[in-house]
Amino acid sequence: MGRGKFKGKPTGQRHFSTPEELLAGTSRRPRTFKRVSEEAEHEEEESGEESGEGYGEESDDQTEKRKGTQGIIQYENPNMVKPKNLKARDIDLEKTTELSRREREEIEKQKAHERYMKLQEQGKTEQARKDLERLTLIRQQRAEAAKKRDEEKAAKEQKKAEARK
């Protein structure tokens, strides 16, 4: 059958489920939609039980039927980490958590830097000594330059005073 000038997408045509397929459960929609609706119904049932409406009903729906081999095969994934839910009363405040290697190294690095800066301020490190020597040398040069300028200025004033006389 000719489609004209433009071709369709390579993924194919859209498929819409008919109401009959939805009722039969053979539609191609993701199973997550079904789970979400089941959870919503389950929450409604719980809220109904709390209010006292569902007193005479039996709860056969709570036993979950698994499809296929899921009901037969029980598996334990060793790689799956189960979340440990701790309650507030079970938490041990005195227990110290161990830091990772990177965290320990980072803390040691910060402490070493602080110690170095403290020694630097006191002038006890090699770099601080060199800096202080440089500063004293610069101060001497500046003092000599200022003294020389003062002498030159005084000499100019003397020449002006002699020229006026």
Automatic annotation (TrEMBL):
Residues 87-165 have a biased composition (Basic and acidic residues). This is PP28 domain-containing protein. It comes from the Eukaryota. Coiled coil: none annotated. Residues 1-165 are annotated as: Disordered. Residues 77-154 form the Casein kinase substrate phosphoprotein PP28 domain. Pfam families: PP28. InterPro entries: Casein_kinase_sb_PP28, HAP28. The lineage of its organism: Eukaryota, Viridiplantae, Streptophyta, Embryophyta, Tracheophyta. Residues 40-61 have a biased composition (Acidic residues). It comes from Cephalotus follicularis.
